[in-house]
Amino acid sequence: xxxxxxxxxxxxxxxxxxxxxxxxxxxxxxxxxxxxxxxxxxxxxxxxxxxxxxxxxxxxxxxxxxxxxxxxxxxxxxxxxxxxxxxxxxxxxxxxxxxxxxxxxxxxxxxxxxxxxxxxxxx
Length: 123
Hints:
This protein is mainly beta. The chain is 0% helix and 48% strand. It contains no helices and nine strands. A five-stranded antiparallel beta sheet has the order 6-5-4-3-7, with no helix packed on it. A two-stranded antiparallel sheet has the order 1-2. The radius of gyration is 20 Å and the shape is elongated.
């Protein structure tokens, strides 16, 4: 099972909070609509990879969208927060809507500390 996928030189992992920018066609106009939520599943292999994103809409209603990764309607995927999870599929979030808030964020590596100069004693 895939725990991460690459989309336009950007790694996207399960548990990440992402924003999917999708093209919507209304008549002869095309506009971009964002969908922001947590990536709960990656399915398929190769060209058939699909991602499932879940968000909580107004009135505590859960909304899930499924997109094929090679779709021409996906303009961009941006990672807002990197989540740290231990499972490949986060379907348990469907029964526990309050749990979406409690996905731990990955710790970013700390910059290396500068080595201090050895203290010289004055005599």
